[in-house]
Design brief:
By secondary structure, the protein is α/β, with parallel strands linked by helices. The chain has one domain: 3-Layer(aba) Sandwich (Rossmann fold), CATH 3.40.50.620. The chain contains six helices and five strands; from the N terminus they run E-H-E-H-E-H-E-H-E-H-H. The protein has helices at 11-22, 41-52, 99-114, 136-146, 165-174, 197-209; strands spanning 2-6, 27-34, 57-61, 118-120, 155-157. The longest helix is centred in the middle third of the chain and has 16 residues, at 99-114. 42% of the residues are buried.
């Protein structure tokens, strides 16, 4: 089955692309979205991961949305990227308004154009407390809409929605995902900062999974 996988360049979506290709035996097409995010460097990493796994990859240029999606540290340079753990209330500053619905809608259109039958994205259990558009209820609701958006139903699936990030890291190891090529840091510097929520979560996932962390972090 031909599918579109949203690939941000991060650990979760990279493992998902490998899982869809190597475990579900899908014809995977990767799609990145540039919505003007501070850490747009992630899309370069998505392209590298896709190339390493022999997956076609394209980027949707939605940079004009940046001015419309204010209020987030990811789209507004005047808002600092919060540091700490995702359990912290401050991490809500990283929420981009309706980001996943926008990206998944574009992915659905791309899937229709390609003749693909499904769209996959890598929401996981650790996302739920912070990101409203990663909740299982959101996945189910949008799946119903996407099933009606074309003459033939387009499936929406989030295979990791009940998995922990540590579980995803272990799966990435088992699938030989080039995790050293992935990018998580929300600050978008030359190296992972090691302090923002995504960096802290990344470190923790590798530690809990018992998987060596290949990430190069800025000195503490």
């Amino acid at each position: 089955m031909k599918v579109v996988v949203l690939m941000s360049g991060g650990l979760d979506s990279s493992v998902l692309a490998a899982y869809a290709k190597r475990e579900l035996f899908c014809d995977v097409h990767g799609l990145g979205v540039n919505y003007g995010q501070r850490h747009a460097v992630e899309l370069q990493h998505a392209a590298m991961v896709a190339a390493a796994m022999d997956i076609p990859f394209q980027v949707a240029d939605l940079t004009s949305l940046r001015g419309l999606l204010g209020g987030s540290s990811q789209t507004d340079a005047s808002i600092p990227v919060p540091e700490g753990h995702y359990a912290d209330e401050s991490m809500k500053a990283t929420v981009v308004p309706n980001r996943n619905m926008i990206m998944l809608s574009v992915a659905a259109g791309h899937a229709i154009a390609l003749g693909a039958r499904a769209v996959l994205y890598a929401a996981h259990s650790g996302d739920h407390p912070i990101y409203p558009d990663c909740r299982p209820q959101f996945v189910l609701a949008l799946a119903e809409a996407m099933a009606l958006c074309h003459y033939e139903p387009i499936q929406l699936t989030a295979p990791f929605v009940n998995r922990s990030k540590a579980n995803i890291a272990r799966l990435g190891r088992d699938l030989s995902v080039p995790m050293d090529l992935t990018w998580s840091c929300y600050k978008g510097g030359e190296k992972h900062c090691g302090k923002c929520g995504t960096c802290v979560e990344r470190r923790e996932a590798f530690q809990l999974a018992g998987v060596p962390d290949p990430t190069v972090y800025e000195p503490a």
